[in-house]
Amino acid sequence: xxxxxxxxxxxxxxxxxxxxxxxxxxxxxxxxxxxxxxxxxxxxxxxxxxxxxxxxxxxxxxxxxxxxxxxxxxxxxxxxxxxxxxxxxxxxxxxxxxxxxxxxxxxxxxxxxxxxxxxxxxxxxxxxxxxxxxxxxxxxxxxxxxxxxxxxxxxxxxxxxxxxxxxxxxxxxxxxxxxxxxxxxxxxxxxxxxxxxxxxxxxxxxxxxxxxxxxxxxxxxxxxxxxxxxxxxxxxxxxxxxxxxxxxxxxxxxxxxxxxxxxxxxxxxxxxxxxxxxxxxxxxxxxxxxxxxxxxxxxxxxxxxxxxxxxxxxxxxxxxxxxxxxxxxxxxxxxxxxxxxxxxxxxxxxxxxxxxxxxxxxxxxxxxxxxxxxxxxxxxxxxxxxxxxxxxxxxxxxxxxxxxxxxxxxxxxxxxxxxxxxxxxxxxxx
Length: 430
Prior knowledge:
Blueprint: H1 3-27, H2 29-36, H3 43-60, H4 64-71, H5 73-89, H6 96-123, H7 130-142, H8 144-156, H9 164-184, H10 192-196, H11 200-203, H12 207-221, H13 224-254, H14 259-309, H15 332-360, H16 365-386, H17 392-414, H18 418-421
Helix pairs in contact: 1-5, 1-6, 1-7, 1-8, 1-9, 2-3, 3-6, 3-16, 4-5, 4-6, 5-6, 5-9, 8-14, 12-16, 13-14, 13-15, 13-16, 13-17, 14-15, 14-17
């Protein structure tokens, strides 16, 4: 195996372990806190913690390129993954101050982690190998949706609450996984470009490294192309909130069996993994707009099924189980099918948005993706603040509305010829 391919696999394995731990921990956070319910912590604390994480990710997004350039990819990945481990271990005996502190540190590290990963892929993908290497990385990363949840499913069995002892074991195991992933990043070897010109990073440092991406992003924010993309980007922020926390919280509040939390996470992961393969292949046949339209149909069908099959207080109740009566009886098999639909619908929008941003803003894609990540993370953070208080039908209605608006905006943008959409190197500077 050559050095470049070795680094891509090491990066993917590291992300698999780190996010197997973090995704599982964040999925069940609100339900764990609900069962814990002391030290000032309750079911709403999990939502507030995730809001802090995504606000900090959004803000760190602007400074992370300078950090990666200063420290290098290997050290940046190692140091930025450490708060993930600290966040998970603090759940063993959670206190409000430590949970919120590590949430902020994790968010700051998250911005650096993702920037550094993109840098590793870019430096180890010479010629036309970028698509192949990105696919290898995402294959490793997507398995993180399954690994931690499989452990959770078999460990929890038929438990109806997560006891202190179970919480200790769960977060010790997840913390161990995250620690393995963190130290895996130290196995990265210098890339070919770093070996050829070890002084390149030093020569590129300076104030422009911080200021220029912000200036480029500010200019892209005002383009008419980005204005059309705000609709679907806002929807992906709300969808992020729903699939990463609200959906699992609803399952925990409707079905007493705590192992169903893991099944919900597994099915959502299957949907997200399938989305990468399905929508990637269908884009060449249907176009990006066709993929978004299909995803919109899946999403709206999902929201309708959730509306009729879940109690209205399923996302907000502080009781052991939701007390309202759903329109039809809640069914775990239908719920798991909704998990797959959730992953497919969310994945379709994200795949199409990534492709559109990379094509339209190909001169400086990093600045465009910074705008995307900032808006998505801030919208997601806002949603985490209200989702523990707003009844489920209103959350589903907001998701359906923004999904439809986002679809209309995206399809309208895609109707313009490619040469009209493309922003050249100097266009945004006029």
